[in-house]
Structures are given as C-alpha cells and as structure tokens.
Specification:
The chain is mostly helical. It is built from 19 helices and 6 strands. It has helices at residues 15-21, 24-27, 31-47, 53-71, 84-96, 109-145, 165-190, 209-215, 225-230, 233-260, 287-310, 326-348, 353-362, 367-376, 381-398, 407-413, 421-424, 427-432, 442-457; strands spanning 150-155, 158-164, 192-193, 220-221, 267-268, 350-351. It starts with 14 loop residues before the first helix and ends with a helix.
C-alpha cells in the first residue's frame, strides 16, 4: 500500500479501510491534469528559489516521461497506490531519487486535487461546448433546407397552428445556444487557481500563486485558502448545466420518437442509428433517441448526489468530497456520448415534407387564421371565434379539412366569407403572414438564420 502519509501511525491501515478510502480506481482519469499541475508548481518553486534549476529540470523531465509512458501504455496505473497523486509521486521518486521528494513542497493533496478537478472540468466544458456547436451546425443546416416545409405546431400535443420545420428546429437552436452560454459562464466563474492554498491555511513558503495561475491558464489565484480547497460550486454548476442539456436532448428525443411512429411518419431515421426486433421483423426502433431520453436520469442523479454530499459539510476539506468524482466522470461521459450520437442521428435523418404538410392541414391548424379573416371583414373576434368553432365542427362531421369546404358551406355559417377565404387559410399564407421577429414567416426566419450563422462563426461564447 503506497501512501503519502504514515509517520505518526504505529499500525498498518486495515485492508478494507484502505480500499474504502482509496480513489485510484477513478481519480486516475485526471493523471494528465495532476502532472500538468505538478510541472507548473515545481517551475514556480524554482523561480522562487525553493528548488534549484537542476532539481526542477529533473522533476519536469521525470513527470514528462511518466505521462508519456502512461499514454503509450508502457506504464500502468495500479491500485497498489492510494490515489493518482501518490502514484505519480512514487514513480517520480523511484526514477529520480531525492529530488522527487521535493515536488510536494508548499502543497497539500487538498489544493492539489482541487486543482486537478478544476483543470479537468475546465477541459470538459470546452469539449461539451464543441459538441453543442456541432449540434447547432446541424440544426442550422436543417433550418436553411426547410424554410418552406410546413408542419403543425403543437400545444398540449394537440395541433395548434401551422409552422415550418425550420421554425421548429429554431426552438431547439435557442435551447442549445443557451446551454453554450451556461458553459461559458461556468468557465469564467471557475477559472481561478486554488494551488497554493495548502491544506486550508496557505503555506509559509514564498509561493508566487499568480505565476502558477498564469502558467495554467487561469485568470488568477483564488482569494481564500479555506474556500479554495472546499469549493465544489463549479462541479455543481457544471452538473446543473449538463442536466439542462440532457433535458433539452430528452425533449427533442421525445419528439423524434413521436415523429418516427407510424401514426406521424414525419421523420425517417437512418438505419445506422436504428435497431430492429429479435422477433418482429418489421420493426425499426428509435433506440438512440430512447436511450438519450433514459440516460437523462443518471445525469440528474449525479447533480442531486453532489448537492446532497455538500449540503452539511463544515469548512474546510472533508473526505466526503471524494464523492465528487465518480458520478461527475459518468455524467461527463453520458452528456458527451449523447450529444455526439444525437447529432449523428439528426444529421442523417430524412423529413417527409408532404406528410408534415398534410398533417398540418388535417388538424385545423389554420382555424385561427380563419377567425382572423373574419375579424378583417369587420366581425368581432369573439363572434368570429364562435363561427370558426362551428366551422371546425362541420368539418369533423364531414371528415374534411377547412379548405375542403365549398364557398356555400362557408356562407351557411357566415355571409362574410368570400372566395378569398381559400387563400387566407392556405398553409403558405398562414405561415407567411407571421412576420414578427421570432415567428415562422420566411423573412423573419431568414433574419434569424443569418443571426444564427453569425453566432456560430464567432468565438466560444
């Protein structure tokens, strides 16, 4: 059992206690971050005259060799070590001797692990942002291609008013754009370096914390050593934002599943993103969308877990906080996998324009426009609402859509109806008349699409 402590203990740690306490099985995930932080720390120690340049060079080379060999598979991280920090330090001492024992000068595992986790979360924020951007690019392509693909818009899962597929995709564009914004906010708020905080009260060594922070790409050092080692707000914020991403993906998946059903047939999923049945040969199942919907719960679980872990902890560091990693790692993997797979599924899907348009016509989505037509002819809206309600009832009885009625049938309900009612309730007119910014009309949508394109061409934000 390789440990970084033990001088004041007279007995070996019980094996069960050791393995219960150890974190090497999961915190080895950020061994690169651990080495990156250690290199910055020893470079700073040499700058401050705490280490010699020869000691610094020996440590930096040793750490670089360890990193390369692990990445190449020539050096295994094994569970004889308590955590990734003890693994790196023990291997370094084996290789370079006494100089390796000086690497930890002016540092505690508390500020070391706080740094490693910040570096890891910061890296994953950028990775998630990149995947969100790829999804937004697919959504923008669909918007451009389907400006005039008419479909029903829904409220309460009931057909409400006609929109376009471009407009519908635009709603998800806004959601995932907000997700990127949340990632940016978290990045900016967490981008301060805890290294140098020590166990909780700083150190007596003349460390240059600003120099270390600058080397590691942080805005600066954290300003309270107790908060530095006990803060996990950035983990909670990341998991909260990740949960929101999953919620958006889950809502989108639900619609894909509905649209893929025989009753809707709005969408045709590519074979590469579908599966079949072991007993029913006709089946083509939207398993990716269903799994994304299902995996949302495990990301929510990670968020609730860390919130529950942190809710009763006194300052500063407590071992409970070791629980911040496993579920966070799982949530990171889940969100990234779901984004990548969902993007591929959506990018390869086909949309049935005729089926969508027919569905919009068959659901009386143009009823509001018929009422607006009457209002334009001088009929009070409340009266127009009642007239069109009776109009819809007539269509239901005759099993037809509004535009299928003859002019005589229109006039039986109101003499105000004229031949121009047919143009007024056409899907094209219903959509094109909605020109306010954010509406599905073509000109309004062209402006939004241009804005979306400019947004995607800008830097991380």
């Amino acid at each position: 059992m390789a440990q970084l402590w033990g001088g004041r203990f007279t007995k070996q740690t019980d094996d069960l206690v050791y393995h219960f306490n150890a974190s090497i099985s999961f915190d080895q995930r950020f061994f690169e971050e651990d080495i990156e932080g250690s290199i910055a720390h020893v470079v700073m120690l040499a700058k401050q005259g705490i280490l010699t340049n020869e000691e610094k060079d020996s440590i930096v080379k040793g750490l670089g060799d360890i990193r390369r060999e692990v990445l190449e598979g020539r050096l295994a991280i094994t569970e004889e070590y308590e955590d990734v920090h003890s693994f790196v330090e023990a291997k370094l001492i084996e290789r370079i001797g006494e100089a390796g024992k000086k690497m930890h000068t002016g540092r505690s595992r508390n500020d070391q692990v706080a740094l490693d986790l910040r570096l890891y979360i910061r890296k994953e924020i950028l990775a998630v942002d990149g995947l969100l951007k790829e999804l937004l690019c697919v959504l923008l392509r669909i918007q451009k291609e389907h400006l005039n693909t008419y479909m029903p818009g829904f409220t309460h899962l009931q057909k409400a008013q006609p929109v376009t597929l471009a407009h519908h995709m635009g709603a998800y564009f806004e959601m995932f754009k907000r997700d990127r914004s949340r990632m940016h906010d978290i990045f900016m708020r967490m981008n301060y370096c805890p290294l140098g905080a020590g166990a909780l009260a700083g150190t007596t060594y003349p460390l240059d914390r600003s120099y270390t922070a600058s080397m590691l790409g942080f805005e600066g050092p954290t300003l309270n050593s107790m908060d530095s080692v006990s803060d996990r707000d950035y983990v909670i914020e990341f998991l909260s934002a990740a949960s929101t991403i999953m919620m958006h993906l889950s809502r989108f998946s639900e619609e894909i599943i509905i649209w893929n059903s025989n009753e809707y047939r709005f969408i045709e999923l590519d074979d590469a993103y579908s599966t079949g049945s072991s007993i029913m040969p006709q089946k083509k199942n939207p398993d990716i969308a269903e799994l994304v919907r299902g995996k949302t719960g495990r990301v929510y679980g990670a968020l609730v877990s860390i919130l529950t872990t942190m809710k009763g902890l006194p300052l500063a560091y407590n071992k409970d906080m070791q629980e911040d990693k496993e579920l966070t790692f799982d949530a990171v993997d889940t969100v990234k996998n779901c984004l990548e797979l969902f993007t591929g599924m959506l990018d390869t899907a086909g949309f049935r324009r005729e089926v969508m348009a027919k569905s919009a016509l068959g659901g009386f989505t143009n009823a509001t426009d018929a009422a607006d037509y009457l209002v334009g002819k001088g009929v009070p809206f409340r009266d127009a609402h009642g007239i069109v309600g009776k109009l819809v009832l007539t269509c239901i009885e005759k099993q037809c859509s509004i535009e299928d009625l003859t002019l005589e049938q229109f006039k039986e309900l109101s003499p105000v109806f004229e031949q121009d009612i047919y143009d007024a309730v056409s899907l094209k007119t219903c959509v094109e008349k909605r020109l306010t910014l954010g509406a599905p009309g073509t000109e309004a949508m062209r402006q939004v699409i241009a804005d979306n394109e400019a947004y995607l061409n800008a830097d991380f934000k």
